[in-house]
């Protein structure tokens, strides 16, 4: 398996991990009956709970951009050292982004987001040249 596909699998697995943390948090905070229900009418999340939810949504948005770009490069057999490094940079940046987003570190979060975008551009680079 290529480095690029391994990174895509890791990015997806990381979203799964965050979702499991979110689900566990829901059960611990809301109780099993409410967490297993439709959760309508619960108070809005605040603090790190809200940031965790936002971080997960942001991860899903990022992988929705990363995955098709990576798969296009993979299918076209355009992978190279730059695309592999870009995929690794993307995954590391997104892990940092989720951690600092959830813990509430604003400037580092923005920097990690930008580094992740740079990783996507590196993966996409063979498609434009």
Task: Explain what the structure shows.
- This protein has helices at residues 3-30, 32-36, 47-75, 81-103, 106-124.
- The mean pLDDT is 94.
- The protein contains five helices and no strands.
- The two termini are 24 Å apart.
- The protein has one domain: Four Helix Bundle (Hemerythrin (Met), subunit A), CATH 1.20.120.550.
What portion of the residues fall into strands of 2 or more residues?
A: under 5%
Number of helices: 5
Q: Which H/E pattern describes the elements?
A: HHHHH
The CATH topology label is Four Helix Bundle (Hemerythrin (Met), subunit A)
Average pLDDT figure? 94
> Under the CATH scheme, which architecture would be assigned?
Up-down Bundle
Structural class: mainly alpha
Give the tags.
129 residues, mainly alpha, Four Helix Bundle (Hemerythrin (Met), subunit A), elongated
Write the layout of secondary structure elements.
Blueprint: H1 3-30, H2 32-36, H3 47-75, H4 81-103, H5 106-124
Helix pairs in contact: 1-3, 1-4, 3-4, 3-5, 4-5
Briefly characterize the structure.
The protein is mostly helical and 129 residues long.
């Amino acid at each position: 398996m290529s480095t690029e596909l391994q990174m895509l699998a890791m990015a997806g697995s990381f979203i799964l991990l965050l979702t499991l943390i979110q689900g566990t948090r829901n059960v611990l905070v809301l109780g099993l009956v409410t967490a297993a229900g439709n959760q309508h009418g619960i108070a809005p999340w605040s603090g790190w709970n809200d940031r965790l939810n936002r971080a997960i949504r942001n991860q899903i948005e990022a992988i929705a951009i990363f995955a098709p770009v990576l798969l296009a490069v993979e299918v076209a057999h355009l992978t190279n050292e730059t695309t592999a490094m870009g995929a690794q940079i993307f995954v590391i940046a997104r892990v940092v982004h989720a951690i600092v987003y959830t813990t509430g570190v604003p400037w580092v979060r923005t920097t990690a987001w930008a580094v992740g975008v740079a990783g996507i551009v590196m993966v996409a680079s063979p498609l434009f040249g």
